[in-house]
């Protein structure tokens, strides 16, 4: 059998990983500033994470949501404390798309409405509603197309106000990434998020904070939406939550009340997933990783801004992007193949940095040196 060939892949087989480094099958070492797409939060194969998952696997790996799950309660308690949202309710699933799918559905159950406001350059996943709210027609199949999603320009307060003035009573939810990831690292302004809060309150709509990529401490706060000083009604989270183990969640404000059978999943919140997610939160807390993301991220961003060839360096914490001028269009490729540094990209010319939240300054320096060398070579060419 062949694989269904949907991924453009690098010809590298990773066989070992530790902290912010990975090794290929030829023994070559790489610096991982991509984290398998913002997934590695506490660092690869962290000993506490490995131990907690291993111990759990030796006790019970899986049972479904038909029995009591003290581990889920432990996770909800810890997540409530660390995220600063102790009065929210946790529902567990297994991927980011599933998190957004359930959030959008829950909002619609809550207010009985159908319309969703999403934003230009958004990415919310590939399942039916999540992909319909994603601004990329090439991944929306005909069966996913719906007139229920309204796309507005990002960070445009006037357009949002006009839309609510016209259709406010029909809007079920507004879904927004605090920092757009796939769209190229675009930070939502504090005023924009505050306006979403105000308009949702005024019109009975639900504010959904897609924190799948920008959440879980990556921005230097637990949720990047926290910078605006307002709470969302639902936060969706995935990537960093399990450090590679497929676990995702939505946390739900107290006024959104559950009903048996309203939402459900087989795999979500199983014993192993909870052990992985608890291990991640324990390490984030013990090693002050949100603080580290803020500090090392600020250092990296300040230093990147000093490299004149890079344009529009932006982001928050360890979610950083910059534009690469045409002259240096091979920069990302050269970082990987010459300097053995994994980075992410966003079309057409953005390099995205999504490393572990435990990144050290010396790892950041390794990248900075490599970029300086490359732009020097590019300038001489
Ligand atoms: C902001 C955002 N939301 C949702 C998703 C979908 O997550 P998943 O691939 O786990 O379904 C992604 C994935 O890149 C994302 O970046």
Automatic annotation (TrEMBL):
<dbReference type="InterPro" id="IPR050103">
    <property type="entry name" value="Class-III_PLP-dep_AT"/>
</dbReference>
<keyword id="KW-0808">Transferase</keyword>
<dbReference type="GO" id="GO:0008483">
    <property type="term" value="F:transaminase activity"/>
</dbReference>
<dbReference type="InterPro" id="IPR015422">
    <property type="entry name" value="PyrdxlP-dep_Trfase_small"/>
</dbReference>
<dbReference type="InterPro" id="IPR015424">
    <property type="entry name" value="PyrdxlP-dep_Trfase"/>
</dbReference>
<protein>
    <submittedName>
        <fullName>Acetylornithine aminotransferase</fullName>
    </submittedName>
</protein>
<dbReference type="GO" id="GO:0030170">
    <property type="term" value="F:pyridoxal phosphate binding"/>
</dbReference>
<keyword id="KW-0663">Pyridoxal phosphate</keyword>
<dbReference type="InterPro" id="IPR015421">
    <property type="entry name" value="PyrdxlP-dep_Trfase_major"/>
</dbReference>
<dbReference type="InterPro" id="IPR005814">
    <property type="entry name" value="Aminotrans_3"/>
</dbReference>
<dbReference type="GO" id="GO:0042802">
    <property type="term" value="F:identical protein binding"/>
</dbReference>
<comment type="similarity">
    <text>Belongs to the class-III pyridoxal-phosphate-dependent aminotransferase family.</text>
</comment>
<dbReference type="Pfam" id="PF00202">
    <property type="entry name" value="Aminotran_3"/>
</dbReference>
<keyword id="KW-0032">Aminotransferase</keyword>
């Amino acid at each position: 059998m062949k694989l269904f060939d949907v991924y453009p892949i690098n010809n590298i087989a990773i066989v070992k990983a530790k902290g912010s480094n990975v090794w290929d099958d030829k023994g070559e070492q790489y610096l991982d500033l991509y984290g398998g797409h913002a997934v590695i939060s506490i660092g690869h194969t962290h000993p506490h994470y490995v131990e907690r998952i291993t111990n759990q696997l030796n006790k019970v790996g899986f049972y479904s949501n038909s029995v009591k799950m003290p581990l889920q309660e432990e996770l909800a308690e810890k997540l409530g404390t660390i995220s600063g949202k102790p009065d929210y309710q946790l529902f567990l699933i297994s991927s980011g798309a599933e998190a957004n799918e359930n959030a959008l559905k829950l909002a619609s159950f809550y207010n009985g409405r159908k319309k969703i406001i999403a934003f230009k350059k958004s990415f919310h996943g590939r399942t039916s509603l999540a992909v319909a709210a994603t601004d990329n027609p090439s991944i929306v199949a005909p069966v996913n197309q719906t007139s229920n999603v309204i796309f507005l320009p990002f960070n445009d307060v006037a357009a949002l106000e006009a839309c609510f003035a016209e259709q406010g009573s029909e809007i079920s939810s507004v879904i927004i990434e605090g920092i757009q990831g796939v769209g190229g690292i675009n930070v939502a302004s504090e005023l924009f998020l505050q306006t979403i809060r105000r308009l949702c309150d005024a019109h009975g709509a639900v504010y959904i904070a897609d924190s799948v990529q920008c959440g879980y401490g990556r921005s230097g706060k637990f949720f990047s939406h926290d910078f605006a000083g307002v709470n969302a009604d639902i936060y969706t989270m995935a990537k960093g939550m399990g450090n590679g183990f497929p676990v995702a969640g939505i946390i739900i404000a107290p006024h959104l009340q559950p009903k048996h059978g309203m939402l459900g999943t087989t795999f979500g919140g199983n014993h192993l997933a909870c052990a992985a997610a608890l291990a991640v939160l324990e390490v984030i807390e013990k090693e002050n990783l949100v603080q580290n993301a803020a500090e090392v991220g600020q250092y990296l961003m300040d230093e990147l801004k000093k490299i004149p060839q890079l344009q529009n360096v932006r982001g928050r914490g360890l979610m950083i992007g910059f534009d690469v001028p045409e002259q240096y269009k091979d920069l990302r490729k050269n970082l990987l193949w010459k300097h053995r540094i994994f980075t992410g990209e966003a079309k057409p010319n953005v390099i995205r940095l999504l490393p572990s939240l435990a990144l050290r300054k010396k790892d950041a320096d390794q990248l900075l040196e490599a970029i300086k060398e490359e732009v020097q070579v590019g300038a001489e060419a």
